[in-house]
Automatic annotation (TrEMBL):
The gene is tmk. The keyword Transferase applies. Its EC number is 2.7.4.9. CDD domains: TMPK. This is Probable thymidylate kinase. Residues 5-180 form the Thymidylate kinase-like domain. It is an enzyme of class 2 (transferase). ATP binds at G7, I8, D9, G10, A11, G12, K13, S14. Belongs to the thymidylate kinase family. Keywords: ATP-binding, Kinase, Nucleotide biosynthesis, Nucleotide-binding, Transferase.
Length: 205
C-alpha cells in the first residue's frame, strides 16, 4: 500500500515522518521521499538552488519521480510492503502548476499527460494544512529559503493542494497542521492502521 504525506513547506511533514517511524515500527514500512530517493534527486536539488527554467525544473521533478517509481515504489509494492512517501505526485500538481503559470497554456493538462501510463497512484494521501503565515514563521528558523518558500507562492500552492483534495475526497485526508505534534502523529498512524486492517495487511507476523 502506498501512503503519501503532502503539504506546503513549513507544514511539519518532517516532524510527522519522524514520529510515524516510531508509531508504525511494527508494520515495518519503507519510508521514502521526493525529490531525492535516487541520484536524480541531487540534480533536482541543484536545479532548485539555481532557479533554472520552470519547464526544465518540472521535467527534472518528473524524471526524479519516474526513477523513484521504478527503483523504489514498484519493487516495494510488488513485495507487499507498506510504503510511506514524504511528498509525491501531488507536490508536482501543487507546486509546478504555480511555477509553470505563464510559461505553459495549461500546466495541469501538461503535467497529467507527462504522468500518464506509468506513474503509480497513492492509496491514501495526508494533506497537512495550515495558514501560510504560520508555515513561514516555522521556516524563518532556517538559514536559506528556496524560491518556492515565498508567501504568494505558498498561498497558491496550498490552494492547488486543496483543489486536488476536493476533487479526490476518497484519497485525501486533511490534517490540521496547527494541532499538537503528538496528536497529529497518533491520528495519522491510526488512520494508516485502519486502512491497512480494512485490506487485511500489516503488521505481518
Ligand atoms: P523537500 O525536500 O520536501 O523540501 P525541504 O527538504 O527543503 O524541506 O522539497 C523541496 C522543494 O521542492 C519543496 O519546496 C517542494 C518542491 N517540490 C516541487 O516543487 N515539486 C515536486 O514535484 C516535489 C516533489 C517537490
Amino acid at each position: 500500500m502506498l501512503i503519501t504525506i503532502e503539504g506546503i513547506d513549513g507544514a511539519g511533514k518532517s516532524t510527522l515522518l519522524a514520529s510515524l517511524k516510531k508509531e508504525l515500527a511494527d508494520c515495518d514500512p519503507i519510508f521514502t521521499r521526493e525529490p531525492g530517493a535516487t541520484w536524480i534527486g541531487q540534480v533536482v536539488r541543484q536545479a532548485i538552488a539555481e532557479e533554472v527554467d520552470p519547464v526544465a525544473e518540472a521535467l527534472l521533478f518528473v524524471a526524479d519521480h519516474a526513477m523513484h517509481c521504478a527503483a523504489v515504489i514498484r519493487p516495494a509494492l510488488d513485495a507487499g510492503r507498506l510504503v510511506i512517501s514524504d511528498r509525491y505526485t501531488d507536490s508536482r500538481f501543487a507546486y509546478q502548476q504555480v511555477t509553470l503559470r505563464g510559461h505553459l497554456q495549461d500546466p495541469r493538462r501538461w503535467l497529467a499527460a507527462l504522468h500518464e501510463g506509468w506513474s503509480i497512484r497513492p492509496d491514501l494521501t495526508f494533506l497537512l494544512v495550515l495558514p501560510v503565515h504560520r508555515a513561514l514563521e516555522r521556516l524563518d528558523g532556517e538559514n536559506t529559503r528556496e524560491h518556492f518558500e515565498r508567501e504568494e507562492v505558498l498561498t497558491e500552492v496550498q490552494a492547488e493542494y486543496l483543489a486536488r483534495a476536493g476533487a479526490e475526497p476518497s484519497r485525501f485526508i486533511l490534517v490540521d497542521a496547527e494541532e499538537e505534534r503528538g496528536v497529529i502523529a497518533s491520528f495519522v498512524a491510526e488512520e494508516i492502521r485502519r486502512v491497512c486492517e480494512l485490506r487485511g495487511r500489516y503488521p505481518r507476523s
